Amino acid sequence: MKKSDKHTSYLADSNDRGRRLDRIVRKLIPDMPLSHIYKLIRSGAITVNGKYQSISYRVAEGDSIEFPKGSEIPKTGAVRATSKAAHPINISDMILLENRHILALNKPKGIAVHGKKSLEGGVLDYLSGGEYDRGVFKPGPLHRLDRDTSGVILFSKSIEGARTVSALFREHRIRKYYIAVVEGIIERKLSLTDRLIRDRHTGKSRRVLPSESNSPEAKRAVSSIIPIAWGESHTLVICIPETGRRHQLRVQLAGIGHPLYGDAKYGRKNKEKGYILHAIAIELLSGSDVLGFSHLYAPIPAESDRMIGSIICENYLGLILKNLPF
Description:
Elements: E1 2-3, E2 7-11, H1 21-28, H2 34-43, E3 47-48, E4 64-68, E5 95-98, E6 102-107, H3 119-127, E7 150-156, H4 159-170, E8 174-183, E9 190-198, E10 205-207, E11 219-230, E12 234-241, H5 248-255, E13 277-284, E14 295-297, H6 302-311, H7 317-322
Parallel strand pairs: 7-13
Antiparallel strand pairs: 1-2, 2-4, 3-4, 5-6, 6-7, 8-12, 8-13, 9-10, 9-11, 11-12, 13-14
């Protein structure tokens, strides 16, 4: 931010390019009512490069957005170091890939993506300082993983990275691979197609009832399940979801009588320490110079490795790698 006797100005960077003027101003002055922001822009009190622009003006890199003198604009942007009292999670040992646009992590089991002491807080703490303190762009997760699901997760480091990943997911040009241990024996590859609905009271998802088949809240869920190794009463599978519904794999596997081993929410309550579901890899089905990778592989956590070895077999890893396409 620069100040003069007449105004305070903000210089737009590459992460602001193409964003609406009102949305950038709202990020810069989060405590100001939106109606007042609209009034300031419409009246010409907030200008771009010294000129009036409409609320919907698309900001360009290098634009100077000027605010009236006295506007309470924070000296730093959206990314700030987490308070030491909060003991932010150190993500340094989780990093699989980092470039200008993307941060890929191998998420541990038992850590939430959002909220207190979350992966998101650790990422914001890791990225605090530098360009993120000067802009309004906030890095964030680009897809979901449940608290007790481990593996590859992507965070944006730029608006271009976020838009690229969003477009690839929307166009089904990103494929995710999970490994899981399920109860019972699955002998052949399965293609699962369901319609799922989320119960907002319990937070659980379920397959729709016949009476709900036309519900607008019912979402199509498609997954492929590939069995690759067997124990006495369990199967190690590779799961490839084509859609990204909440708890999709857990609900669909439970629905065919093969819930995740240790999944108390969708399976049987038992003494196991949670289920085994690991996002082992992510693959781009078309190239991207922005993201800088064709595929990423996340090593299996030590605890899950021990459990799989005891339930299935010790040499299972070679079977997994044999069934991945890269």
